[in-house]
Amino acid sequence: MMAGRYLFGGWLEFAWVICYNINKDVAYSSLVGIFAGLLAAHCHALLSSLMDNGQKKLGFRSIRNRILIFSILVTLLPSFGMGWFWFDMTRKATTDKIEQRLVDSAGIAEREINLWFKERHYDLRVFANSFVVLDNLSKYSVEGGQESAALEKKRQAYLRNIATYLTLIQKQFTTYRRFVVLDRDGRMLAASDSPESDRSIALPKDWRRRVDAARFFTGDVQFVGKDATPLMPVGIPLLSGEDSSHLGFFVMEVELRGLLPLLTASLPRAEQTTGVATLFSADGHSILSTSLSGGPAGKSVALPQIAQLQKTPQRLQEIINSRGERLVGVVSKFEELSWQLAITEDYYDVFAGVMQARNRIILITILLTIAIGGTATIVAGQIIIPLEALTDGVLRVAGGDLDVSVPIRRDDELGIVGAMFN
Q1: Distance (Å, rounded) from C-alpha 414 to C-alpha 422?
Q2: What are phi and psi of 97, to 5 degrees?
Q3: Is the pTM of this model over 0.85?
């Protein structure tokens, strides 16, 4: 009985500790500690019972030990197996659901960004085909072979006309940071009036090949000003209306912050989850992120995390950002632009439901183990007490005491055996 009371008290104390930990949302690895603690409590009770009443020679062959071991196995093995199976299945289902949701969001963002750039290309062609630009640039090119002060003055007047036109449309369309006209060799001829009018255009190395292949080109993203505004030059060739001779290039710098509303609108909208969309160049450098426009600070990812996500495009992966935050995300590469989009969400927001259900299962398993273990202890005590009395009587008879009698308190098989002994 002493061993039974000790075991039952150990169950209660252990249950209190586990409930306290579960209530504080323990990590998944605590499940191993829970079952290890249960086994330790049972084994301690078994060893204590073996020390009593001279039963050390029976070891684990005793009935008490067999009942207790059976109660452990019949409780822990099914509970652990079913709990692990359910957790693994639910986690996989949740992972597939989140992965598909983020991939769909990336597809929506890519489609909207492509439409946005098509609108910019349309504006570019409208601005470039203006009579003011083509007529003045044609006159400038025709009179370029003659050298005289009067002709040079006229040529500069043509360029001023173009610059005035560029300044006018730049003030009307604030999406564009600057308009520039280049000659055939890429040298700046005229630009819209701005504090940055003398800043050179960052042309890509293969810009001529792009012009020959697609009749337009896009440059590398630059970050300009104190606020590091991302700008991308987009240009098309200027051709004479009469003989389609090449006059130069019309280039406009597009402010990419206009893409932020599109990125924000494409993010998945689920309860208790906040995603972050980040645009990256082909070499992995950040261009734009919704975390810088009112999103959750610190949830964005950097070059090392992007390199990790790039290993399996459009597959959900778990990463740790530079601030040590646990995230899940996917990377999707654009087909028309040399960009890639990373969408990430907080790991604990995504799997909050799975972790809560896991903790409930752990708690239920512990309570079931305690209930079955306590029941097994009571049942074992009801069997062991009469057996201990009978064993004690047998030992006394073996010692020469033939007047010994065993108390009969039961009407079952053990009571019959005790009566036959008496």
Answers
A1: 12
A2: -65, -45
A3: no
